[in-house]
Amino acid sequence: MSKLLIPAQRRERIQEYLAIHQIARSADLCKVLNISEATVRRDLEWLEQKGILERTHGGAVLSQRMSFEQEYQQRAQHNPEEKRRIGELAASLIEDGDIVFVNSGTTATQVLQYIRKDPSITVFTNNVNAALELGDPGFRYYLTGGEFHSRSNSLAGRFAMENLNQIYANKAFLGVDGISVKHGCTVPTDPEAEVVRRMIERTKGQIIIVADHSKWGVVSNFQVASIDEADKFISDDGLASSAIELLAAHGVSCTLASIASSPA
Which of 118, 184, 195, 230 reaches 20 to 30 Å from 207, CA-CA? Predict the structure, then answer.
C-alpha cells in the first residue's frame, strides 16, 4: 500500500499534474494520488481559493492570469502558424452577403487576411491592421473610428461605440487573450472590452471566438462574454480533448485547425 500524502503534498502533486495536462478530472486525481473523491474535492476547493485553478464539473483547469497587455508585435510572434490556420478556417465560415464584426488582435488580423474577395461581404472592425496590411481586400470594410491605442493597434472609445450603435452584424469573429469556463472570454484592457461587448450586443447571429490553444485556461483583466454567450470556438489541434468536452457541455462547438498537417 502506497504511503499516504499529507495535504500540502497532495496539493503540490495536483499542481504538478495540472502544469503538465492543463486539465484534471477528479477521477484521474483519485487514481494518481490514491485518495477519495471527497478529499480531491476539498483539495481543489483549497487550490481554487488560492487562485491556482478553477473547478469545473468533474475536475479542474489550471488558472493562468495575464495582468498586462503585450505589444502587438510581441503577441504576433506567439504561435504564428496556429493563428494563421485559425484565421483561414474562421474566414471560410463567412458567406455571401454577410455583415461581420472583427475585433483587434493578432488572430483576428489573420481572419481579415483570409476573407475572400467578394464585394457582397461587409466587415466592420476596430483593427487598424485592416488598413495597414490589407490594401485592396476585394470586400467592403470599415474602421470603427475612435481613439488609437498603439499597444494593440486598435481603435476604441466614444466614437467607436457610437458608430457601432448604428450597425447590426450577423456574425462576429472575436479574438481574446483568455478563455475559461468560470471567467469566460477576457481581454487585458477596458477600452477593448467595451468595443467587444458592444459588437456582441449588435450581433444577431453567431458569436465566434478565435484563439490558439495557449489561451485556454488563461484569465485576463476584463470579461467580454461568459462561455454561454459564445456559439463557436475556433482553435488549433493543440487544444485538449477535455477542453472540447467542457465547452460542448456549455453549448459551445469547437472547430480545430490542423497544424500537424501543415507544410514544413
Answer: 118
Lowest mean pLDDT among 15-29, 157-171, 172-186, 230-244: 15-29
Q: Please say whether the beta carbons of 17 and 24 come within 8 A.
A: yes
Would you say residue 185 has pLDDT above 90?
A: yes
Q: Which helix (H) or strand (E) holds 107?
A: helix 106-114
Contacts for 88-94: CB closer than 8 Å, 24+ residues apart: 88/114, 88/257, 89/234, 89/255, 89/257, 90/114, 90/173, 90/208, 90/210, 90/234, 91/115, 91/116, 93/171, 93/208, 94/121, 94/171
What is the 8-class DSSP label of residue 118? -
Report how far residue 37's alpha carbon sits from residue 22's, in angstroms, rounded to the nearest whole number: 19
* Number of neighbouring beta carbons within 10 Å of residue 204: 10
pTM of the model: 0.75
Catalogue all structural domains in the chain, each as residue range(s) with its CATH number: 7-62 (1.10.10.10), 72-257 (3.40.50.1360)
Q: How would you classify the pairing of strands 59-62 and 23-25?
A: antiparallel
Q: How far apart are CA 184 and CA 177, in angstroms?
A: 11
